[in-house]
Design brief:
Layout: H1 2-27, E1 34-38, E2 47-49, E3 54-56, E4 60-64, E5 67-74, H2 83-100, E6 106-111, E7 115-120, H3 123-142, H4 152-156
Parallel strand pairs: 5-6
Antiparallel strand pairs: 1-4, 2-3, 4-5, 6-7
Helix pairs in contact: 2-3
Length: about 170
């Protein structure tokens, strides 16, 4: 009898957890599939690519059928994805391919938990990512770095803030 009660207890608890996960996925427009990785609830280990010498942490990684897809949540209302967000997502696609050793057909951008954009990780975006990384490294080598904005909030949350000599005060 006690075994039966314990079994029912664990069944109810697992149903509650499963319902919470479904609600969270709906709330954030997360792609269907199993969440393999999340950097939102608690800090997660960053991914690293030896080939491209990049590192990063997507908000989510979802396994859908045979694919593993990065999902990035952004604030702001945009009728189309911002170019910088697309390149960031492309970097996450590359990181997922390098770390999971699996082809990534697309990544997902979600703005304000409403607008969802599937961004194909196609040859053009792969080229744009490599080209941008090369340009960034060349600018850094030449000491030709300039700030590309005048937004103090972007500076406050920048991962390179400690190394930057052109901060907005």
């Amino acid at each position: 009898m006690a075994f039966f009660a314990v079994s029912i207890f664990f069944f109810v608890v697992s149903k509650i957890i499963k319902d919470r996960v479904k609600k969270t996925k709906r709330q954030h427009n997360i792609q269907q599939g199993k969440i393999e990785y999340s950097d939102l609830n608690k800090p997660a280990k960053p991914f690293f690519s030896k080939k491209y010498r990049i590192t990063g942490k997507p908000d989510y990684v979802v396994k859908q059928n045979q694919y593993v897809l990065p999902v990035e949540l952004k604030t702001g209302n945009h009728s189309k994805p911002r170019a910088s967000h697309v390149l960031q997502l492309a970097a996450y696609c590359q990181l997922i391919e390098d770390n999971y050793h699996n082809f990534v057909p697309y990544g997902v951008l979600v703005y304000n938990n409403q607008d969802v954009f599937k961004i194909p990780f196609d040859p053009k975006l792969r080229f744009d990512l490599e080209n941008t990384l090369t340009k960034m490294r060349n600018y850094a080598k030449a000491g030709n770095l300039t700030r590309s904005h005048d937004d103090i909030n972007r500076c406050k949350s920048c991962s390179m803030r400690q190394h930057c000599t052109i901060k907005i005060r």
